[in-house]
## 1
Amino acid sequence: MLSQFMVLFGFFALVLVSIFWINKAVRMFDRLISDGQSSFVFLELTALTLPGVIAVVLPIAGFAGAVYVTNRLSTESELTVMQATGYSPWRLARPVLIYGVIVAAMMSLLTHVLVPTSLHRLETRKAEVSRNVTAKLLTEGEFLHPAGGVTFYIREITPEGELRDVFLSDRRDTQAPVIYTSKMAYLVQEGGGTKLVMVNGLAQTAQTKGNRLFTTFFTDFSYDISGLISDDIINLTHARYASTPALMTRAAEIAQISGVSEGVVTLELHNRFAQALMCIVAALIGFATLLLGTYSRFGVWRQILLAFLLLVAVKLVEGTLTSPILSAPELWPLAYAPPAMGFVLVVLLLYMASRPRLFRWRSRSLAEASSA
């Protein structure tokens, strides 16, 4: 059973990761290509989003693998044969528990190591890309908008690095928009910034007050384009990027540095452990629910629906307990209430599956009492 669980888990994980990852990659592709970035940058940034995507789909894949294998065992009567030979639901749940622990170990590796590291690197690379002047501006034959109110166009870029037939419209000052045109230009690094040196050009300034146009011919003109590049400060001290040992020992310091409350840091820390437990809960709920009832040629779709609803209920509880922890960090044990609730549901479901006659007798007695 364990081998079947792992094979189906791998299949569902691959499918779900592909769907989520492609969705993220398409949106990132449009943004990066429109900024003139290379395909290598696109592949690097999308690869850095992969650990986060896997962490999202891992519990879903674990649940789907457990439900699919249990359903197949039930429809092929293998589960019935195992129960007839004396295997109790508690004994049958052992491979599922081991399967859930393996998935939880993968989730722990992601939440404690890979996801914080990849998020930190992703934000760093995004900051570097956003400040890459060359990639944003050196695209010939296209009207580019590197900043709000700015339009830039180059007809041709020569192998020597000359920019031919340059057009630059700066409308950031609505009272005096300026249009620069030149036959030739160069990008020059100077004083830690980047300047566009235009040769043999024309500057046209429109004064909206008085409706007048001023034109200036120049042989060479230097325009500082460093301001066109985003200078947004990326907060790389957020709790999401911190390691688990740092969150455990320096919670107050991280909260102060990153500018968030201690509740955010506390929730981030305990969620990393709770997510791993949720992987075990998801697998066990999917298995234990399908043990309810008897064999039916119509399948176990009712049990599958019940398992899905139970898992949704556990996730809803998880969502409602977020706010109390954010406002009061000392309530951190509430982060483990959803997995605890899931384990209680699993015990109850296995207890019901191990005593089908008892519950059948009770339901029959209630039906007779109601008819009488």
## 2
Amino acid sequence: MTTSTRGASKVPAVLVLEDGRTFSGRAYGAVGETFGEAVFSTGMTGYQETLTDPSYHRQVVVMTAPHVGNTGVNDDDPESGRIWVAGYVVRDPARVPSNWRATRTLDEELERQGVVGISGIDTRALTRHLRERGAMRVGIFSGDAWTGVRAEALLDKVKAQPQMKGANLSAEVATKETYVVPAIGTKKFTVAAVDLGIKGMTPHRMAERGIEVHVLPATATAEDIYAVEPDGVFFSNGPGDPATADGPVAVMRAVLERRTPLFGICFGNQILGRALGFGTYKLKYGHRGINQPVQDRTTGKVDVTAHNHGFAVDAPLDKVSDTPFGRAEVSHVCLNDQVVEGLQLLDQPAFSVQYHPEAAAGPHDAAYLFDRFVSLMEAERA
């Protein structure tokens, strides 16, 4: 990515997809060029949490909501220390933010962090194209990166970028050093959380329940995990292809062998799937947004949930499976397309979901999953 910090509101820009389709608009945020995988998010709110979610590393996010930036940017809502999206695509950016918590505009924040974006394009047409053709590589070009450059040369640049399939990215976004999020109120449990791209709200949700969370790097070993004497182990969300995550899979198998209560979300769900012997695959265009209906098959309840995943677990929906760690079943399923959204072991305390129960941003329907993790640790202690 190359950027400059010149005013972007009137600078022409172009978005180039790897299949050759282009969209012309105006620069939004920084001016320059950027590349990534084009994906769309259906959330109408929570753009600041989306931008700072490490799971969006190397992805260019297309917002389906037409008006973006209304509430500006503040210093309280980021899910990490920086914006992780590779690029940002909006139709109609707000000219002036209107929210008492805002400290600056979204355009200013994108420019400050060097995030190249584009506005003024038909995001409905782009979203439909991605739904029909699938997520694909993309480039955004503005300023000197576009002026006088042949369209064929821009397309060649896009095609030269790496695919998301086969990408091993979790270590690029995870913490390098272990840190501790203290329990809020009385400490009840200690959890070792393997950071594969964790969002800030996730350990906070556990802290609210009296859990002291030790957040470990993605490269943590089983010895590192058990050095903190955990009552439970957590594997976080994160970017990239789970088929490349052999290290975390091996570590999770070590945790399962010790029968420690285990909870995984998003990438952590895919890691559990692989640890149990299931495969993973890339979805055509993925699930991204805060309005996805998921059924908890253990209760029959349907939750509206927050998602950000382009890969899924390939596990049978219609039967209980035998695994090296006992019986396992699909516990949650997406009602839009029957994609596996959760797994649970029946013979030991381990479960996972593919979506984001921390509700940042998103509905609070799935918050009970943190209570379910607490119940597993309580039962193990008893």
## 3
Amino acid sequence: MREPVDLRRQRILAAVQARGTARVRDLADELQVSVVTVRRDVEELTREGRLRRGHGVVRSTLPAQEAPAREAADGDRVAVVVPERHSYLTETLHGARTVLEEAGVRLALHIAPQAAGAERPLVERALADGARGLLLAPRWNSLAVEEADHAWLSGLQVPTVLMERRPRRGSAPHLLDSVCSDHWYGAHLAVEHLVELGHRRIVFATRDDSPTARTLRSALAEIAGAHPLVEEWAWALSTPESGPEGPYSADETAELPVLLHKTGASAVVLHGDVDALMIVQRLAAEGGRVPRDCSVVAYDDVVAGLATPPLTAVSPPRAEVGRIAAELLLRRLRESAPGPTRRVELLPRLMVRGSTRRVDTADGDVGDTGAEPGTIPSNE
């Protein structure tokens, strides 16, 4: 999902003001946009008198005494730990970073490799370097890995906020602050959208290797199982490598085209975007047409809009999760006495695009959704 121009320019301005000077190429890498895009933004901010341009660098126009203080002697003020190669959390990270930099708080990013318990040594290193607060998104690809982290997480002595992670009720780290998307509501949006279009048989294909994936699987099963208009539904792994928990039944590891045919399903909900794009490509290679033969809803909306056709998708508020988590952490750092634990839930949206269409349940004909691409249904 493309970031609004004004927001991107605010982030550029905050980054430059926090450092005094920044390279254009570094800004492009951090914002995940092209160098040309950053140059255009910098030119506009320069015309407004908010930045000064140099050869490949950008400088703040604030006098030295107005620039956010950088207390090197104190080490890193706040550490952020996220999993490597996790595109979903990239936007969350940017949301947090914008808030912290605007507040003049130093940030150190730590990337956890794909290994059980990888976050703990990074957190210990950050604390040794002087971090006064933590924003964490542990990978937790299985329940066993999550439970193994409970003891050290509950023993942290600095303000800590979990992003898109919520420990199970009653567990030791249940008292940690957390900011999450309401994935039950996201599942509700997907099912209701398809049912309103006349789909009565639906396949759900999700990952099973993160707290989000497990929550989403459970929510889809609960909602579809209780829905009076859903005649049949089935769940399967979106890809064989996306489910470390197991064991799974034959249907739960079946190829999606096979399961769609077996259940007579006319729609599928997939977590996440890349897996949804792959199944659309596979259906096309086998002569299937999306949405005429099968409606597809993706879950994540990181790259869903770039598909052909653009995919209808549930879009969690990724950047807002990071922003609110950072604001909560700053509040904790400034409190004279600790307040009650805060658990914040934000509602996803449904972005209706070209991969879902109406089904006439009487004769199986397919029609238009009745919504313009990119619109949000009125039931939100």
## 4
Amino acid sequence: MPLALLALTLSAFAIGTTEFVIVGLIPTIASDLGVTLPSAGLLVSLYALSVAIGAPLLTALTGRVPRKLLLVALMALFTGGNLVAWQAPGYESLIVARILTGLAHGVFFSVGSIIATSLVSKDKAASAIATMFSGMTVAFVTGIPLGTFIGQHFGWRVTFLVVAAFGLVALLGALLFVPRGIAHNPPAPLLRQVRVLLQPRLLLVYAMTAVGYGGSLIAFTFLAPILQDIAGFEPGMVGAVLLAYGLSVAAGNLWGGRLADRKGAVSALKTIFLALAVVLFVLTFTAPNPWLVVLTVLAWGAVAFGNVPGPQVYVVQQAEKVAPDAVDVASGFNIAAFNLGVAGGSWGGAQVVSQLGLAHTPWIAALVTLGALGLTVLSGRLDNRAEARLASA
């Protein structure tokens, strides 16, 4: 592995950790800053919203900046944002820190993909991107549970200091090993990007992505309070459960990709969304039992992120039909849709907790996920009609 690619993978690990480690720290942060659980949950929403909005906008605005310089600047912004979180005296300053790191997150994966493919031969381009994104998977398996453990034993601020240290190492790696003069095509102008959003078939796929991914976040954002307040786990055990969840996520990603390859994106997503809705509904009843809730969380991880590969493949297939000159833009907007789902799901979960109570988040998450299943069924029927018209013609 080129050292530059290792630096990109470490960057992805740090970014993946900082996005979701806060899930395990929500009770700790809420208690320390004197805010409610729903308010602490908004720290997930605001981060994801800054990713969704900042990614296409900043990618377009920085199109002429040399790739190495931009990568170093992004990791400096990311590291700085985590240092602000480390020193945050209150809730408002922590919000600022989350927005800063979210902006860096959004552009990093766009720029990082270009750099990763430039580091290897063309026949290894897909493997290079997969290697970089493996940093996100490792973050779920090790970074998030480890960050939760550190935050619960040494204070949540120390978690962000450790993540900032990883960001600094990644920054130095980019500075030392990423070559200069990486060729790249400027991103599509904003007007062309907006035109992608006028395609109804692409909007339907984005809705599938946002609703399907966001439904799970209604409950996932408040997984730590569910484990502590309903299942009765000690705070120190939450990290261990999140470790089990992360291992299950890693397996689920592979399973979801293979299922999409074998059955097609729409059929695979029908299976995954249905399974996810069932698991979330079951969680409503298993949450009070420590043993059953762990088994349910393992099943949840196996299907929670299996819906990631399918929509990415599907949006490219649709874009090749309705917007062949903007496939890359359409794919980028699907990443934004994922993060809109995170923002909306976290915000929706906060409303459920404040209005109905923590115990109601799983079954409401299940209902929203069934909505994603309905959108997927509709999209599949539209595909079949289009194929039938083409065949008759």
